[in-house]
Write a structure and sequence with these properties.
- Keywords: Membrane, Transmembrane, Transmembrane helix.
- This protein has about 200 residues and is α+β, with helices and mostly antiparallel strands.
- The protein folds into 2 domains: about 1-120, no CATH class; about 130-200, OB fold (Dihydrolipoamide Acetyltransferase, E2P) (Beta Barrel).
- Helices cover about 40% and strands about 15% of the residues.
- Strands 1-2-3-5-4 form a 5-stranded mixed barrel.
- Strand 1 (about 135-140) and strand 2 form a beta hairpin.
- The protein is rod-shaped.
- It starts with a helix and ends in a 9-residue tail after the last strand.
- The relative contact order is 0.11.
Length: about 200
Amino acid sequence: MFEQFLTPAYLPFAITFVVMIGIGLIEAVGLGLGHLNIDGNSGIEGHQGVLDWLGLGSELPILIWLTSLLGCFTIVGIAIQQGATAMSGGPLPWGAASGCALIAGGLLNTLAASGLARIMPGFETTVISTDDLLRRRGTILEGTARRGAPARAKVLDHHGQAHFIMVEPHDDADAIPAGETALIVRREGKVFFVVPDENRLLQSI
């Protein structure tokens, strides 16, 4: 069976299977690429309906959807070739088999993606909004943060992931040197404004 899987008639499905395994490994090591979601609000008429039909209109991560599609394509393709061999004594040409498998696999994946989305309603992502960093403490890494002269700081989100941001003191008179910690209180564009922990108002926080 393995030798048959490497013949030209089965080669597209063998390649697809290897790619599917590769994507699965990427997910397993936690690179997070599968947490990218398709935004259905593109402003194009009927776009959301197409995404729903493909199974992309839900919150299912894109790499999980793609892995499902590759799996459906592989399974359907092998089934087509096995059926053709049983009926006619030989598999279909790889191009014809691939075309049929793409159509049938896409239809099957619509059902598979919908099922995955239903059983994964609580899928957690480590992707956060920039504003989620507000009211967290950061550490000045280099330089001294002054008004009009931001410094680079490191802050950990609630997942424990590090983010590197530019910060300025909230108060004009403050200057926060490297190594000091400060509370992030607001944001303007890409710059965050902080209050140093030595501020008396923060001693009880």
